[in-house]
What we know:
Layout: E1 16-20, H1 23-26, H2 41-47, E2 55-58, H3 60-70, E3 76-79, H4 100-106, E4 111-116, H5 123-140, E5 144-148, H6 153-156, H7 166-179, E6 183-186, H8 192-202, E7 206-210, H9 217-229, E8 234-237, H10 239-242, H11 247-259
Parallel strand pairs: 1-2, 1-8, 2-3, 3-4, 4-5, 5-6, 6-7, 7-8
Helix pairs in contact: 2-3, 7-8, 9-11
The structure holds 1,6-di-O-phosphono-beta-D-fructofuranose.
1,6-di-O-phosphono-beta-D-fructofuranose binds near residues 20, 23, 210 and 238.
Amino acid sequence: MNNHIEDSSISRNGNTLILAYDHGVEHGPVDFEPEPESSNPENIFKTARHSAVSCLAVQKGIAEQYYEDYSDEVNLLLKLNGSSDLAHREDYYSPKQCTVKYAVEELGADAVGYTMYAGSVHEDKMWEDFRKVQEEARKYDVPVVMWAYPRGRGIEESDYDGQTDPDLIAYAARLGLELGADMVKVKYPGSQEHMENVVRQTGRTKVVMSGGSKRSDEEFLSDVQTTIDAGANGLAVGRNIFQRENPENILDQLEEIIFE
Length: 260
Ligand code: FBP
């Protein structure tokens, strides 16, 4: 059985641009402050109609209320788990709010996404949650994207130099291959050489770069170009799109870099 993304609707010439819009959960309304109209999901669905966008990643509630109106023009990646900045937790954990069955049968999802916090004291439980997601996704024939974010006490107490250590990013990405993800989403590891190592470690599992906080066009596009030059497959991006006054301009440029 080969990678499930290649023949799926969220891939174009093997590459993908995921427009991520789960920030209302992960960070709260503060992420919408730079462009207040971005708090309205309707505007993000409209942006997602741009030909550069392979799919829009949202939580269940937004999919339920808005997706039907855009399902002809936008592919849906249902983010199955998520966690808010408000929770008081012993360590990083991202609970599941939606099953693959519900995502596909009720919401019309084309793909599903799951955040994995390798290094957390809850890592074992997250592996178990992910196992169920991954096997259910195979049953429904939808690709699984892992948000591969190494975080938590295991990392703090290790010899790795924090969450952005390139070797740690490669390790978290490798877990994606080993645990059955079709695609991993990783933070930019700092250089083309480091991204090449991430790509090497993930084998047939695809790799996309995580957008991160908003930067200048030049800085952001240069990291995306380096990511593609390293052999990775695209981008999962939120704030660097919806915090811009005119997201279409940057999407035009991203389309050229990622798909042409
Ligand atoms: P950005 O491009 O805005 O970084 O979005 C990607 C993403 O993974 C979102 O899906 C998620 O809401 C956010 O980053 C989480 O960021 P972090 O956990 O680094 O605060």
